[in-house]
Amino acid sequence: MQTEVKSILDNVIYLNIETTGLDEKTSEIIEIGAVKIKDSIVTTFNTFIKPKGRIPLSIYDLCIDLREEDLLSARNIEYVKSELLGFLEVLPLICSNGEYVKSFFEYHIIEVKNEVLDLMEMAAILEPWRKEYNLQALLNDVTTLNKNQMHRGLQDSLDTILVVNSFLCRLWTKEEVLGALEPIYKTIIKGNSLLKKWNWTNYLLKPIMFNNDEYIYVYYKDNKEENIHLKRMDIDYNEYEDLLKKSEIWDNGGDFSYEYREEQKNISSKIRQTIENKERIFIEAPTGSGKTFAYVLIVAISTYLNKLERNIEESSVIISTDTKELQNQLIEKDIPNILKKLSLYKKINFGAIKGKSNYLCTERVSDYKEFEGDINGPLVELFIKRLIIGGKYGDIENIGFWAYKHFELDKYIKHICCESENCNLDKCIRECYLKNRYNELPLDNITVINHSLLANWPYGEKKKIYHLIIDEAHNLMEKAYDFFSEEFNSKEFLDLLDEIENGNPSIYFILRRLNANFGYRESVEISDIKIRRDDIEYNILNMINEFRNMNLQNKEYNFTTEFFNSREEYKLSMESVREHLSNLKVSIYSLYKLLDTYISNIVSDEDPHGDKDYRKLLNYIMKLKGQFDVIDTFITQSNEYAKILEVHKEFNYFKITNTPLKVGELVNDKILSDVKSTTFLSATLRIDNSFNNIKKHLGQESANEYKIPAVFNLKEQTRIFTLKDLGSYNSMNYIKNISGFIFETAKKLNGHMLVLFNNNSRREQTLEELSILTKGTTIELHTNKKALKYLRDKNRQIIMLGTKGFFEGIDLPGDALTCVIIDKLPNQNVENPLVKAITTYEHKKYYEVNYPQLCIKVKQSYGRLIRSTLDYGYFIILDGGTNNITLRKLEKDLSGPRIENVKSEELLSYMDNDYKIWKMNNLRTLLNNLRVKSKDIPSSIKNEAVLNNLFWEFKRYGEWSTQWYFKNINTTIKVNDSVKGVERKYTKGGQGH
């Protein structure tokens, strides 16, 4: 069929497919749509394909206007092939997701040999700073069209044309405006031979006499700003927290629903008083109390008023978080939104900064030669260099999930990120994102950092910390030990030694160059260096052999022990290990002393600190000296430290760690010594209903404290279970049993589940088992935190499998997340070296050490479930253990319903009814809201649901216009035009229809 459509590119085919799932081996192609542009003549191809298996109901929701009868009456794939091949000829195919289309064609229609061009890959190369590269996101961002992706073959192909046109127009316009910038086509042609073969290359050359005026829908700015109209308002900032009572400020623009809460005002008041009085305070603010809003409000107003008075110290506040998710949420959403409401957006400077290794280094990217050794390396290099050009981007965390995965950046990041020791930001002359942020720090009024950076603040010369808000402060219970620990890792140390001859450039080369620059004052002998290096390697090998001879029992996990409190059968071996460590220490010192002597003799009495080679060598030998000190401390017995020895399960390396036990003194000396005011905030600070535990641990016994009462009715919104029939976590069939239960739960709830594991091994085993169970279904398994956003998609059935980093920092209100499962109570092993050191040296009982950590972790994981008044769901502990006292204490600390111990089948039988009641109650709330707002319910229900993070939508009218059907995934409810008149219809299987 011929149609009217304008494509910049000629002699190509835009093609997209629809399938029954994402796995080509277990899913089928059900629709193919294509638009051929040949010699400027446009023709289309569109066909349904009859499926052999069942079509998941979610596919009909995803693919707009797709009907079952169309598929059932369609031709089989064998009858479509010849017609498709005739249409495709040998023209290249441009697909919105090329990898996906290619994988399905290679499995189902192997006769298609056409070259496939991936729109997502092209978009990532041209605009590498983007977070999303799916068709819907690109339609939204690079066109002015207000279109929703239909997930239909032909329409998606037409939309792909619009997006490709837009990207090319944006590219050529930018290259024309920035005349000094070399066109990407020339960059590629001049580059690596592999890069020249990139299948998009020839399409990036701007045609002669090209006029982009014909493409009026192209959006040319980098980012679209939300078009929210805010009325101008007079705000008295001296009212501080009392501004929360003025709903007209927060309702201004109508972009979010605001409700005044006295508890939120009280949080703000306490924080303001703490800052003004230069005090310290612990505030437990449960989920839903609005603590983030509360402290951002006070920080914004306080810094602004002090900025007006030119009071530099008081106009600067540091906010420290534990998770990157909260850090990003603050910078991208919370702070800008609140500043805009307060009319302070352009009047206050704010930003985030992380440790240096979180950023790409322009110099290291330029020097890295290994890109050329990989078939995809040149394209990765092009992506990275286009990303960091001009120093506008460079935060590794902000690289889009798809691009990071597609370009396999994990292989390269450690070679091209900033190095803490060798990165001198004050003397860097490159265009660098980190350098730019570093130089902006003195101008920041609000700076967001993470706890690890706070513990070792490296930017003190640019910015002092005067006032500090520590959010997610419960993490300091455990993290404080990590902050002040020091370690020696044999594998990492061998890598350090390898730099002597094989560094880029090598230490030996740098040493010779330094010697030449200072007039050859020293005779540098590589043989002397190698002898000392070999001696160290010999001592490390001796230690590894010693560990092999120890007959370590557990081959599944690394062996760990508290060095001076090891089990009886290892005590004699530990004496031998101590002797080997002493020899290793001596050999390291010998190498350090030789290199230090060389450097001292070369520079003599001159001041070499401006010399780059000198700085690199100095950093290198200080690393050697630091590792010498770690070993020296480790082999000296002391009640002040936990001395932790870890041996890899396959003897690939060993690690020793010195962990100080009295961290409170270090928190005060190393972190808070010069800080005027500190607010410790979290939803989970109290243990056994008291702040005493965390205050004592952090050395803050005299700090103030304040507790906000529970906001949500957890007893009505949740149920908590432990399961009695899946076995103990260390039993033989445990993985198989829990995987089966998780799978059955996912089928009932259509995914929207988070499964948390206390260790990575159990997660991997469960993932493997679930991969078998979910094969051929539409249930998706994900383990990367960046995939959490998929839970918000009602058309996808997602099970997220997470470990330690997933226990907190996840905010998915409404229908996105309705079930949280944890594999077992997070008890600490009695043989845990740190636990053993604390119980031995500080004379504490095991439960005194174990329960605080267990309580915090369970409270945090439970807190992932309820984020708003309309949240609901199950919190399930698969193995609740046998200690009923612990479970009863948890009941009190969770402030939720009683913990029920049931069989898995019994729990599954409750599920349909419980979830339908919760969903129906939420629908009632939405309907009430719309009636109060006097809005038309059928046309407004979806927007109201979206505002409340719910999936409800109007489905159809009933027999009368006052009778409506509403749908939420697999639940359909019939409603009469009266809030009280709510009925439900069920199919035989209990599912709504």
UniProtKB/TrEMBL annotation:
Its EC number is 5.6.2.3. Residues 250-536 form the Helicase ATP-binding domain. It catalyses: ATP + H2O = ADP + phosphate + H(+). Keywords: ATP-binding, Helicase, Hydrolase, Nucleotide-binding. The keyword Nucleotide-binding applies. InterPro entries: ATP-dep_Helicase_C, DEAD/DEAH_box_helicase_dom, DinG/Rad3-like, Helic_SF1/SF2_ATP-bd_DinG/Rad3, Helicase_ATP-bd, P-loop_NTPase, Ribonucl_H, RNaseH-like_sf. One of its GO terms (biological process) is nucleobase-containing compound metabolic process. It holds the Pfam family DEAD. Its cofactor is [4Fe-4S] cluster. GO terms for molecular function: 5'-3' DNA helicase activity; ATP binding; exonuclease activity; hydrolase activity, acting on acid anhydrides, in phosphorus-containing anhydrides; nucleic acid binding. PANTHER family: DNA REPAIR DEAD HELICASE RAD3/XP-D SUBFAMILY MEMBER, REGULATOR OF TELOMERE ELONGATION HELICASE 1. Belongs to the helicase family. DinG subfamily. This is DNA 5'-3' helicase. It comes from Clostridium gasigenes. The lineage of its organism: Bacteria, Bacillati, Bacillota, Clostridia, Eubacteriales.
